[in-house]
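thread: overnight batch results

M.L. [08:02]
morning all. the overnight job finished for the chain we discussed friday. pasting input first so we're all looking at the same thing
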Amino acid sequence: MGCVLLLLLFSIPFFHLIHGIDIEEDFIWQLKKLPKIVKEKTFSLDTPKFEGEGKLELSGVCGIECQRTLPAPRLADLNELLSYETTFENGTRTLTEVNVLGIEPDAAPNATSKGLSRRKRQVYGTDSRFSISDTRFLTNYPFNTAVKISTGCSGILISPKHVLTAAHCVHDGKDYIKGSKKLRVGLLKLKSKGSGKRRRGAARRSKREAPEVEVHQADAKRSRRRSGSSRAGRKQKTSGLDEKKTERKPSFQWTRVKSTQIPKGWLRGVTGDVAVDYDYAVLELKRPHKKKYMDLGISPASKMMPGSMIHFSGYDSDRSGQLVYRFCSVSEESNDLFYQYCDAESGSTGSGIYLRLKEPNEKKWKRKIIAIYSGHQWVDVNGEQQDYNVAVRITPLKYAQICLWINGNENCAQG
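M.L. [08:03]
and the structure it wrote out:
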């Protein structure tokens, strides 16, 4: 039943019932001209201690009421907040100062739109998460863009060599967290029969080079041989449903991280406290992958999303080794954050939140990442501790910065 529901969710466009007639909404990706972020100077910094405490729940951050009172940042503030640190695998670290061009900050406050009242707990009422176990989904887009970070978080592939995740998965605002010195990213792949310790190095290299379709076909043949009999009418495409019978499970292929980049706005020394608006980081892999990755998109207002729905997949800690998918509506939003009540547990932090809209002047629909799941967070509201789930929106400024990290100054004119 779960597989059928997932197929429906990912193959049927969204419809709204208007005056008793189903009408497909014309939801389109709006291309916008991006501000330009120019690198000014790069300085060497001391080697970090890597003694930060990794916390998947943040406390004391600026919440919904606090966001409503924040003034719009000045241009000088943006230059400071969007400067960034780069930490390399050998422990060296640099600071790059930037200059933001082509933007006139809005004088309006960082207001939120009102929505549902807060609830409690990370899973709200009936758990609506889906564990993805069928390899037909695990090894195919969009689920195969989700990755696991060795510090206990999730992330999403955004280029052949880059992963987007939450900043607090690698840095606590004061220092890089323990375990981030030898940071690794796990990509889920099917494990072929006999690919254990025998010829480990050769097996890993050949598996990275083999197209996913060929690996899947080879595994399907092995599954049929192990079953001892073939059922009439069953074809190779159903082999994913027999995975439990053959006890063949996918496994993580771990890749070292070459460098990590985080915005200076995340550092406590700049903001005085962790600023959730800048809770994002990009990891450059030491070795490129051959999977399909997901493009970035500028986050639209929730009213411009089909059903105001967002989607994301990650590796929740309470479902060890399983990829977990969920979707829900956005409840409230500010200029930089989405507030929502998608069921999620720690471990899914850093997941890429995406939605599916039409490409301009085309009939095809495309998924893009429009936010990063920052996690379940406690904030002080009128003297009381209250909680919510929050995601960092990809604004034109954040898009321009992430594009700079991936491509340099090339191909960052619009998004």
